[in-house]
From TrEMBL:
GO MF: chloride channel activity; nitrate:proton symporter activity
Protein name per UniProt: Chloride channel protein
Residue ranges occupied by any CBS domain in the UniProt entry: 662-724
Transmembrane segments: 91-112, 133-162, 199-219, 231-250, 283-303, 323-344, 406-439, 492-509
PANTHER family listed in its UniProt record: CHLORIDE CHANNEL PROTEIN CLC FAMILY MEMBER, CHLORIDE CHANNEL PROTEIN CLC-A
UniProt organism field: Sesamum angolense
Family the entry assigns: Belongs to the chloride channel (TC 2.A.49) family.
């Protein structure tokens, strides 16, 4: 005890000296024995304020298992039949997620191929009749109408359906309680957008309706924060069901029963017939593609960040401005898509071409005739007057070294760079995969033309590598992109050079800014916790963070109803430590110490008030009393509000036994733990609350120092409250 008192006195003297010392110092050079922060509670008295001036109201999900008396009793009483039933239901859920996702994906592809196909057939018909103005009016009008429908649905009925949906899913799987995430989703057509992002969002919405978030193809690398082998198997099973459903519909549609949806219904850029051989001189162009992909990908992220900031200002002005912005982009897109092919010269068909017919006049195929005479084709129209899927097939086409002119590819690349920047962010569902693939394949093919005399790699394969490099440079994925491009190209021989390109592009891109999804997460204000803490976080303890927060709000094990109501009405906290005073300490513990019994959730307190589970005297309840009033399923509900509860004046004087409802095993850390270590634990376990316990136990020492939540561990919030940390070089991020 004497040693403890000496330590307390030394700590108090150290704090006093630090308060008097105004000399500036580098936080990186701080020793672990010197507290970095002033110990005060003057930051904010607001229950909503956590750390910092800019406080988000979004907190974490309750992933933690609530090990209270009811849970323990339910777990002990489960029979083998109930356990097997639980396992069966989990796999049934995975099957239903895959089945419904596959059905909806098929319907979306059917709609896209038929709507876009019939639209293009009508436009081509007008062009063949030399009625160019009518062709433009029809194309622009159809695009305008489709965009209007999608924008109205997003703006008025399902705001969360706008955008790709992947950043929200990523935040949700990081543990963020993303508000209104699982809304309706709509797909638009006629814009420079893909359907991959909305499909991911749709799959997650289906899984949410059925019970939990489902996995997606690249969830392991890009989306999920934590992963388990059991979840991997169920995700693989769901994905297999989706593939089976899609393939079954494709086989059925080959007979012509699905309108224009047939062989080209799903993206499959088959280059399996190409014999890929590598030579020493091919290393240089492959490396150049990787470097270009990293640089261009980071530039795309940078400029898209600026554009989205401007769009946020416009969108904040109201629904009308959102609609006008979306429709303006639609009209601009139609003008560019239809008008730019008139700027290029017609190219003569190659008599030795493997294409069955040149020129083509249908909705698909290479060598589009457009405005050219017989025997000539318009290479830019081949890429623009078609669907995005067919555009990628055309630009990925092999054994076509002279099909596309460098001038046409330059126009195509510049156009899609512009459209990719101004289209993403408007009030319609959108994906980034296809626009980035089109941009990357364009400069990849241009590099292939330039390297033609020095390499034997086909230009179509250069386009594939260019698309892969730009995706890695923007999205910063590697493993999942290898799998995706392996499936798309159906050529295992491309895997080695694809891996090299992806690694180079990601490494170069990481030198400039974060991935595009991380940038969108920041713009949306979602409190995403990074995998790696900042270096300066190792010099701050969780106890020091607790000292710049308002005092922790605790409840007694047997609490008065009036105090519970007061706490719920005056705070927005989700959890409250339950502390027992006068507990009988174990042998060797100091007398008079208080006991931390556990943590009770706000939802459970509201449930108690709704069920009016009150006691007239201050006492502990028996186990049968708890089971008589509550079932384990009751504690799974989360949506109650204190305003919905009515408590009489007499009931205010009664008591509630919180012991049976408290989580007796909450995650705790000692106050001397570094913030960096606490953040890693918080993120990996998927917590909403982390209790801070004192390092020393003694009479008069409260058993809880404070509570950390997601907002407390965000670097931005810590730096806002502690501006002296901004002087640390380690706190600078590569934004």
């Amino acid at each position: 005890m004497e040693d403890f008192n000496k330590l307390v006195e030394a700590e108090a003297a150290n704090i006093q000296r630090q308060g008097e010392d105004e000399e500036e110092r580098d936080p990186e050079s701080n020793t672990l024995h010197q507290p970095l922060l002033k110990r005060n509670r003057t930051l904010s008295s607001s229950p909503l304020a956590i750390i910092g001036a800019k406080v988000s109201h979004i907190e974490s999900l309750d992933y933690e298992i609530n090990e209270n008396d009811l849970f323990k009793q339910d777990w002990r009483s489960r029979s083998k039949t109930e356990v097997l039933q639980y396992i069966f239901l989990k796999w049934l859920l995975a099957f239903l997620v895959g089945l419904l996702t596959g059905l909806i994906a098929t319907l979306i592809n059917l709609a896209v191929e038929n709507i876009a196909g019939y639209k293009l057939l009508a436009v081509v018909n007008y062009i063949e009749q030399k009625r160019y103005l009518m062709g433009f009016i029809y194309m622009a009008g159809a695009n305008f109408l489709l965009t209007l429908v999608a924008a109205v649905l997003c703006v008025c009925f399902a705001p969360t359906a706008a955008g790709p949906g992947i950043p929200e899913i990523k935040a949700y799987l990081n543990g963020v309680d993303t508000p209104n995430m699982f809304g309706a989703n709509i797909d638009s057509k006629g814009l420079d957008l893909g359907k991959e992002g909305p499909l991911v969002h749709i799959g997650s919405c289906i899984a949410s309706l059925l019970g939990q978030v489902g996995g997606v193809l690249f969830a392991l690398e890009e989306v999920a924060t934590w992963w388990r082998s059991a979840l991997l198997w169920r995700t693989f099973f769901s994905t297999a069901v989706v593939v089976v459903v899609l393939r079954a519909f494709m086989e059925y549609c080959k007979s012509g029963n699905c309108g224009l949806f047939g062989k080209g219904g799903l993206i499959m850029f088959d280059v399996s017939g190409v014999s890929v051989r590598y030579h020493a001189e091919d290393i240089i162009p492959v490396a150049v593609i990787g470097v270009l992909g990293g640089v261009l990908g980071s530039l795309y992220n940078h400029f898209l960040h600026k554009v989205l900031k401007v769009y946020n200002i416009i969108n904040e002005k109201g629904k009308l401005h959102k609609l006008l912005l979306s429709l303006s982009v639609s009209i601009f897109t139609s003008i560019c898509m239809y008008g730019l092919p008139f700027l290029v010269k017609c190219r003569p068909c190659d008599a030795s071409s493997l294409e069955s017919s040149c020129p083509t006049t249908g909705r698909a195929g290479n060598f589009k005739q457009f405005n050219c005479p017989k025997g000539y084709y318009n290479d830019l129209a081949t890429l623009l007057i078609t669907t995005n899927d067919n555009a990628v097939r055309n630009i990925f086409s092999i054994n076509t070294p002279t099909e596309f002119h460098i001038f046409s590819l330059t126009i195509f690349f510049a156009l899609y760079c512009i459209l990719g920047l101004i289209t993403f962010g408007i009030a319609v569902p959108s994906g980034l995969f296809l626009p980035i693939i089109l941009m990357g394949s364009a400069y990849g093919r241009m590099l292939g033309i330039a390297m033609g005399p020095y390499t034997k790699i086909d230009q179509g394969l250069y386009a594939v590598l260019g698309a892969a490099s730009l995706m890695a440079g923007s999205m910063r994925m590697t493993v999942s992109l290898c799998v995706i491009f392996l499936e798309l190209t159906n050529n295992l021989l491309l895997l080695p050079i694809t891996m090299i390109v992806l690694l180079i592009a990601k490494t170069v891109g990481d030198c400039f800014n974060p991935s595009i999804y991380d940038i969108i997460l920041e713009l949306k204000g979602l409190p995403f916790l990074d995998a790696h803490p900042e270096p300066w976080m190792r010099n701050i303890t969780v106890g020091e963070l607790a000292d710049v927060k308002p005092p922790v709000v605790t409840l007694s094990g047997i609490e008065k109803v009036s105090h519970i109501v007061e706490v719920l009405k005056n705070t927005t906290h989700n959890g409250f430590p339950v502390v027992d005073t006068g507990a009988i300490p174990p042998m060797g513990s100091p007398n008079g110490a208080t006991e931390l019994h556990g943590l009770v959730l706000r939802a459970h307190l509201i449930l108690v008030l709704k069920k009016k589970w009150f006691l007239r005297e201050r006492r502990r309840t028996e186990e049968w009393e708890v089971r008589e009033k509550f079932a384990s399923i009751d504690l799974a509900e989360r949506g109650g509000k204190i305003d919905e509860v009515t408590v009489t004046k007499d009931e205010m004087e009664m008591y509630v036994d919180l012991h049976p409802l408290s989580n007796t095993t909450p995650y705790t850390v000692v106050e001397s733990m570094s913030v960096a270590k606490a953040m890693v634990l918080f993120r990996q376990v998927g917590l909403r609350h982390m209790l801070i316990l004192p390092k020393y136990q003694a009479a008069g020492v409260y058993p809880v120092v404070g509570i950390l939540t997601r907002q407390d561990l965000r670097a931005h919030n810590i730096l806002s409250a502690l501006p002296e940390l901004k002087k640390s070089n380690g706190s600078k991020k590569g934004h």
